[in-house]
Amino acid sequence: MSDKKRILLIDNEEGLCRMMEAVLLDSGYKTKAYTRSFQAVEEFIAGEWDLVISDIKMPGMDGLEVLQRIKAKQPLIPVIMITAYATVEMSIQALRKGAYDMLTKPFEPEELLYRVKNALTQTELIEENRELKEELAGKFKFENIIGASTGLKSVLERVEKMAIRDISVLITGESGTGKELIAQATHYNSPRKGKRFVAINCGALPESILEGELFGYKKGAFTGAKENRAGLLETADGGTLFLDEVGNLPMNVQKTLLRFLQEQEFNRLGDTTPTKVDVRVLSATNSDLKQAVKRGAFREDLYYRLNVVNIHLPPLRERRADIPLLAAYFINLQNRKFGTGVKGLDSEAMAAIAQYDWPGNIREMKNVIEASMAMESEEHLTLSTLAQFIDMPEDICSMPLDEQMGGDYSSAMAKFEAEYLRGLLGRYSWSVDAAARDAGMNMATMYRKIKKYSLKKE
Fold it and tell me: How confident is the model over 390-415, as pLDDT tens digits?
């Protein structure tokens, strides 16, 4: 094994310790054995071991006390208890104190290895889950959302304030503006962040399926319902349910959802017994729900239940200062993913993307950057490559660059560079070293540009 798992053995029987050491060493584990429990606990350092195996009946400090003291130092470490006098009462006591498993003497080497493997697998799953949660929480920190424009900053300030309040939020904006990203940031910065974030696109499923997906169903509720099934509301219990394109909800589903928002309970399809859950509902739409209410296509009472707080995301054409930041971010993502070395956009390409209206918003930009990088053979993305993927007006491609940017070209590009660097430094809490690495420039250049543009930490 290249990455040896470390197992601590504690048993006052020296012969048993030697046997376990030999078996575990032969299987590629790293071990250390103690015959004195006091010494083992005293020398135990959290993080140095992946598993502890301890006898229960030992002179001085018994195994249950060993278990308690080790768990106090490293709560998540699995501990296997060994005993020659296994009783139900003793097993329950050990498990309540945090033991992972019980092993009864005498045991065969195969049994020992089987229990060890199970315990270590469980530990790996717990660790992977913890790392994933930390990664998600980090990914959706507000400072990691790309942008430096006034419009986006104003949105993020509102989102940060309402994230901690357990209220319904309606996120509005054009397609591709990042509504789900804001919903995820809301969840991962709320008291519910330890529970699940469950999303469903209300416009992607037919009415007959959507109701069952949301609320679940009872066996026999309809043809094909061969077993009881929990819906997404139950899956999200304790966490957050995100209803994307909520304006597409059919009327019968709107009625059931309204009852849930009022009573925190609903009925599965075909069931007469209410199901109660604790779920925060966030929703999003790119349509005008007020107009839908006037047309009778959306319930007014449901609209006000969902729209306790409204967060509106501006389209990319209204936050042009964020365009260079987003382009650099997507280029860096692709470089890391495919090991490429595209340095950015050349001056013509940068001028073009700054002028382009991006009707598909951030999603369109991401797709265009990815496609352009797949086709580009130069160090910088060029206008001719970009033009293969977006319908640029002819006047953008033919107009002198200073006219494209609405004034002196050098001044316009300097403005964009200053905004880009200000946003990049903000993302890394003004760590010049980290920002320089992300931008692909050395620190001396970064310091010169900070001085050139008189950039200061806000």
Answer: 887 655 544 444 444 444 445 656 77
Contact between 183 and 171 under an 8 Å Cβ cutoff? The reply is yes
Domains and their CATH numbers in the chain: 6-135 (3.40.50.2300), 143-314 (3.40.50.300), 317-452 (1.10.8.60)
d(CA 253, CA 201): 14
At 354-384, the pLDDT tens digits run: 889 999 999 999 999 999 999 988 889 998 8
* pTM for the model: 0.62
CA-nearest of 149, 146, 192 to 169 is 192
Q: Is 240 exposed, middle or buried (0-12, 13-18, 19+ CB in 10 A)?
A: buried
Contact 326, 362 (CB under 8 A): yes
Q: Check residue 321 and report its DSSP letter.
A: G
Q: Residue 417 in contact with residue 344, Cβ under 8 Å?
A: no
Contact by Cβ (8 Å): 129, 111: no
pLDDT of residue 140: 63
Write out the H or E segment, with its range, that includes residue 213.
helix 207-215
Torsion of CA 298, 301, 305, 310, to 10 degrees: 60
Buried b (16+ CB within 10 A) or exposed e, 216-227: bbbeebeeebee
Cα 165-170-175 angle, rounded to 5 deg: 135
Find all residues with CB under 8 Å of 53, minimum gap 6, and list them: 7, 8, 9, 10, 11, 20, 79, 80, 82, 103, 116
Q: How many CB atoms lie within 10 A of CB 117?
A: 12
pLDDT score of 408:
45
Q: What is the mean pLDDT of the chain?
A: 86
